[in-house]
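Homework help board

Subject: predicted structure for assignment chain

Our instructor gave us this sequence and asked us to write out the predicted structure in token form, then describe one feature. I got the tokens but I'm not sure how to describe them. Can anyone check?
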Amino acid sequence: MNSLLLVSNDEVFGIKFNNRLSHDVYDLSMTSTFEEAKVQLAQKDYRMVLVDLSDENEIEVLLSFLKLKYPKVIRLAVMNASTSMDYYMPKQQNSAQMSWKKNIDHEELFIIIDKVIAIDEQVKNSELVNLVSNFKHLPTVPEIYHQLNLLIQENASVEEIALKLEEDPAVTSNILKMANSAFYNAKTGSIRQAIMYIGLINVKNIILTNAVFGNDGLPPKTRQLHWEHVSLTNKILNAMYFELLGKKLNNNISSVGLLHDIGSIVLMSNFPREFNKIVEIVNSQEGVNINSVEKEMIGFNHEELGGHLLDLWGLPFPIIEAALYHHEPFCDQVINKELVISMHIANYYAWKYMNNNHYQQNLDAKAFSELGITQKMFDVFFENLKRKL
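My token output:
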């Protein structure tokens, strides 16, 4: 049974939540304040904490406390109905792994909670955790990432943050590349202006991406090939949202394409011979699923590994999902279907554009209709996009 702690000062919401929750599956505890929650957390192991407080600053304080003291606990938040939000992820800086608006239908809420638990079980699989712990080449969160988090918590100025980032030329270069991309079109050489354009969450994602690609187990040509792939995937993803879906991808996840394939990078670093054999098998046998071959030869696949690492680093569930399901976008556990399906398409077309047959990909034909477009529409869009890439 999964232990769930609801921290809510809304009595009506608490009663409704308690009445509709499946108590055969969840062991629910309820409290109304941060201080009471700390007592509960000290006395019992919880799988998940759902925060519903009227003051959004209080929500952030509690979520930050959970992230620091109880990193393995799933952190969910209920936000004011007027909060601007896409993909269950608020637009402002937030320590929740997933958020909902206050007026969400309770049945939908419980379906999502069940899926979150299923995803959490998948990325925290004990066999995967044990295997990863023995990796020789495993990216770690760089010190500059922690320093940036500290500056954000202290409400540091953009000037102070920029000075810290400028200590790392590689990070600075990639921040400027994103800010000057067609999506942001900043046309700037200033790291300060670049931060204002792309936002701090994207800055943090770029730092993590650099850590993965800085892995010393990767041959330079392989590193360059896959950096080109994830960069291109991210450009295609953002462009298709704007031009085909008629919306701008939430700024908090506009760099999600950079992180979607980190499992492959780490897999190649630690199992170079096995990975080459996997690619050979997939390319020689039509219709073979790369995830199945990886799992058979290594014990897990690159999507599971990517999801595990992103969860380990405390990233939000929408970003974890994009890494975990970009080859299987119609998996029943997927919550943010539009995002994951779009990532599936962008990933496929990035490899296609690169004309690299070494990493043959399969495209699910249903992906286009699920987004309300046709493959012909996408191909026309992509031909136009190629002139800008």
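Reply (TA_rk): Your tokens look well-formed. For the description, you could write something like this. Residues 220-243 form the longest helix (24 residues). That's the kind of observation they're looking for.
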